[in-house]
Amino acid sequence: MSQETSGVDSTVTPAAGGQPVWTEDRVAGWLANADAREKQLQPVSQALFDRASLQPGERVLDVGVGSGPTTGQAWEAVRPDGSVTGIDIAPPMIAAARQRVTASEIEWIAGDAGSYDFPSKTYDAVISRFGVMFFADPVAGFRNLCEATRTGGRLIVTVWSNLHATGLFGIPYTVATTTLHRLGAEYEGFPPDGILFSLGWPEKIREVLNAAGWADVESTVDNRLLYLPPDPLAAAKMTMAAGPVQALLEGQPETVRAEVEAALTADYAHRQTESGIGLPAGFIVVAARRP
């Protein structure tokens, strides 16, 4: 993510909950699943854009664009007279976004949105789908976005709830840790407020955004279902390849990993439907205004 961590795989795996690092291999793996991830996260995009209510002619900044789907959707909403700028901390993500979203009118920036020198009071709206949880200094990062937004402009972002309030991550994490306990395996737990979940409480969001200069902060928890692939084994493998479960299993022997995979597969088999394996999303839609 780049700054974006969208979806099951949006999850760059931060070691011990720390700042994610985007190696070439990690970027390649993330992009390999971009289409499946986008299908999974379409309900999140819908919630984000419903709340943002972008209008033709508006100037929009998209933070943590990943492979660019929300940036392209924003352009469709504000064209033909609006403008969209997409920023991501990982240059390979910006390169991929340029290839996947070909609208020549979009401006792409490889940089850290928390400190990038944006033009002052420029944007009507700042949006982000899971791209704002990674600022080294959250207050400073959101202040930078606030300063780039015109007076009366708005911020609309989605963030994950804390680990145990996010079914998409919390349910498989509980299955995995229960299995490790049963096996007597030693492990380092993923913190509930680790970087992926650093804004996972409405009161925390309000505190950070108010300190950064935003007003009228509103947070709405959304627990609609997000779907893993319909095959339980494939879903288990996807879960183990990203996010808190991947971090949890780093360094574990193959015998332990096989037991976790079997436990996840069995759990997912009980959740299987024609639409896929549905888990409560547990994300938060955040809206605020620059006074």
* CATH hierarchy, class of one domain: Alpha Beta
Spatial ordering of strands, largest sheet: 3-2-1-4-5-10-6
Unreliable parts = 1-19
What is the terminal-to-terminal distance?
30 Å
Structural class: alpha/beta
Q: Please write the string of helix (H) and strand (E) elements.
A: HHEHEHEEHEHHEEHHHEEE
User: What's the count of strands?
Assistant: 10
Overall CATH architecture of one domain: 3-Layer(aba) Sandwich
**CATH homologous superfamily annotation of one domain:** Vaccinia Virus protein VP39
**Sheet with the most strands, sense and barrel status:** 7 strands, mixed
Strand percentage: 15-25%
Spatial shape = globular
* Gyration radius, rounded: 19 Å
- Average of the residue pLDDT scores: 91
**Helical segment tally?**
10
Q: How are the elements arranged and paired?
A:
Elements: H1 24-32, H2 34-52, E1 59-63, H3 69-78, E2 83-88, H4 91-100, E3 107-110, E4 123-129, H5 138-147, E5 149-160, H6 167-183, H7 202-211, E6 215-222, E7 225-228, H8 232-240, H9 243-249, H10 254-270, E8 272-273, E9 276-280, E10 283-289
Parallel strand pairs: 1-2, 1-4, 2-3, 4-5
Antiparallel strand pairs: 5-10, 6-10, 7-9, 8-9
Helix pairs in contact: 6-9, 6-10, 8-10
